[in-house]
Design brief:
alpha/beta, Rossmann fold, five-stranded parallel beta sheet, 15 helices, globular
Length: 339
């Protein structure tokens, strides 16, 4: 990953400014915990901070042209280490952590910092987390440790409490939309950009992506439309009792479960808004569609369902049985989803 790509993501600028100031004050954090949902560029930011620490330029860093930056761009810098989930693995293994610790115990090859990045740090198993704890407690000189985790991470408090936290949030909608349009114009065939000629399509993709521009960019118009149609049909079948909840949950888990939960959150939020405004009409003397008592119950049921959907998303990265959780959600919210 080219660390310079972080410069093209405007919502990372405040984090970059903060890190540059820390470097100038000779106070780069020994351990940094970056909390971010997918699609906000946490990996690009970690790569940029790595370059910031390792760059050998005396001017603005990272320069992108010094020997150290060139080594980073060719992915062969001896003082840069990255640990992530291995293919088909559910956890970061303790052997990966031990290899990282051994590398950090050595002196810097180029006489500067050593930087380690752990992507998906919430996937550290118990043994790996325990092994890494000593490195946090007794850091070697000129070492920067960057851990990337979701906001609902399951890192032990003993590890999280020893890190400086940096939380990445989705940019304002207008910033995200402007970036997506610019990206589509500059790279018309990149990712799903070719399928989004209209701003309305970007709205749909951005909503499904939870406001994360990089994730929205991966979607195309056809997939967004297909998912929307499938979800609406599924809810109709659910309300009519013409679909087996177990089979429905199984199908959802096997096909874009994260996007489906995001779609449900958006759908429920719109319904809450509709029912709320229906009960407070100031333009007409006509009665609302439901008596106040029934309307209140409807809205309460939708809010409870929205909380359940957010809880389902929050625990999606844990070891729980996601299909069983989704089945329980669909069974419990059948009535509210159908109306």
């Amino acid at each position: 990953m080219d660390f310079l790509s972080a410069d093209s993501l405007p919502w990372l600028q405040s984090a970059q400014t903060r890190m540059r100031a820390a470097l100038a004050a000779q106070r780069l954090p020994h351990s940094l915990l970056v909390l971010s949902t997918p699609g906000l560029g946490a990996e690009q930011l970690a790569s940029w901070i790595t370059a910031l620490a390792l760059c050998e330029c005396r001017g603005v860093r990272p320069c992108g042209v010094c020997a150290s930056c060139q080594l980073l761009r060719s992915d062969c810098h001896p003082d840069s280490h990255v640990v992530r989930l291995e293919e088909d693995a559910q956890q970061i293994k303790v052997d990966q952590v031990r290899d990282l610790i051994d590398s950090l115990s050595l002196k810097s090859y180029r006489g500067g910092f050593k930087v380690a990045v752990i992507e998906g740090a919430e996937s550290l198993n118990a043994n790996g987390a325990n092994a890494f704890l000593k490195t946090l407690e007794e850091p070697t000189a000129n070492t920067v440790l960057i851990m990337i985790a979701r906001p609902n991470h399951r890192l032990p408090a003993t590890i999280a409490s020893r890190c400086l936290r940096m939380t990445l949030s989705p940019p304002p909608t207008e910033v995200a939309m402007a970036w997506l349009k610019q990206r589509a114009e500059a790279h018309p065939t990149a990712g799903g950009a070719a399928g989004f000629p209209q701003a309305r399509s970007w709205d749909a993709a951005l909503a499904l992506a939870g406001g994360a521009p990089l994730r929205a960019l991966e979607l195309d118009a056809a997939s967004v439309a297909a998912l929307d149609s499938d979800m609406r049909e599924s809810l109709q079948q659910l309300g009519a009792g013409s679909v087996d909840v177990t089979l429905l949950a199984e199908r959802w888990i096997k096909s874009n479960p994260g996007l489906r939960i995001a779609w449900l959150e958006n759908w429920i939020t719109r319904r809450v808004h509709e029912w709320t405004t229906a009960g407070n009409s100031h333009q007409s003397a006509e009665p609302v569609r439901l008596p106040a008592a029934l309307l209140k119950a409807k809205i309460r049921a939708l809010f409870e369902l929205l909380d359940a959907a957010r809880e389902l998303r929050r625990f999606a990265s844990t070891g729980m049985n996601q299909q069983l959780a989704l089945e329980a959600f669909l069974l419990g919210g059948r009535t509210a989803l159908a109306n």
